[in-house]
Amino acid sequence: MARILLVPGFWLGAWAWDEVAEQLRSFGDEVTALTLPGLDPDDPDRLSATLETQARAIVDAAGESAVLVAHSGGGAAAYMATGLAPERFSRVVYADSAPIPEGHTLIPALGDVPDFPLPQTWKEVEDMGNSLAGLDEPTLARFRERAVSVPAGVAGRPVTLSDSAARLKVPTTVICCSYPSELVQRLRDAGEVPIFRELRDLDAEYLDLPTGHWPMWSKPAELAELIHEAAGR
């Protein structure tokens, strides 16, 4: 049994992990899915959230020890959390995500607007590099209905990492969905794509799960199995 903390990406709350969490619990794992600060639609102060407040929320939710699973844009706060308290994470699993490097901004063109909503069309979402492969119309409708805009302090501010290099020693697994692991590693080595650059300093394992950018919906059982296996290493 492992204690697993699930962190969703942009526009999503803990609900996005429901199917994966159920499958992990069937394996005997203890699972917590986290709605990050800024992504709770009922929080009147949510737009004041920052990457730093999200990272600290992850540390608090981890307790004494957890396997941290981060999806998509959640990888930024997750990686920051491993720098704040590396001893609290027995492993980090990035699901179609990556450890975001110092100074990188997820949405650099955000400007002075207060938040970053889900784009109005699915074509715009895919044009951002987010494959919708494997998602049916009911899933897309639920996504659209429940999506919450991302505060500017999260989407439009640069990542800041702690001075400690201990985060680099946290065991790391990268589950590659939109891009095959062979391509991710080539982009990592070339150093030209910022979101993969930090992987050069990590001794990570790479697993393939061919699907779109939201594997928790397109292949929840398969994703849960890979997370469970990684957590047991």
- CATH homology superfamily: Alpha/Beta hydrolase fold, catalytic domain
What share of the residues lie within helices?
25-40%
The structural class is alpha/beta
The end-to-end distance, rounded to whole angstroms, is: 11 Å
What is the number of E strands? 8
Question: Please, what is the average pLDDT?
Answer: 97
Residue share in β-strands: 15-25%
Strands of the biggest beta sheet: in what spatial order?
2-1-3-4-7-8
Write the H/E string, N to C. Answer: EHEHEHEEHHEHEHHEHH
Q: What do we call the CATH topology?
A: Rossmann fold
**CATH class category label:** Alpha Beta
Provide the domain count: 1
The rounded Rg comes to: 16 Å
Q: Which CATH-level-2 architecture? A: 3-Layer(aba) Sandwich
Largest beta sheet, briefly? 6 strands, parallel
> Given the structure, what is the number of helices?
10
The stretches of 5 or more residues where confidence is low (pLDDT under 50) are none
Backbone shape: globular
Pfam family, one: Abhydrolase_6
InterPro entries: AB_hydrolase_1, AB_hydrolase_fold, Sec-Metab_Biosynth_Hydrolase
Keywords: Hydrolase
Protein name: Alpha/beta fold hydrolase
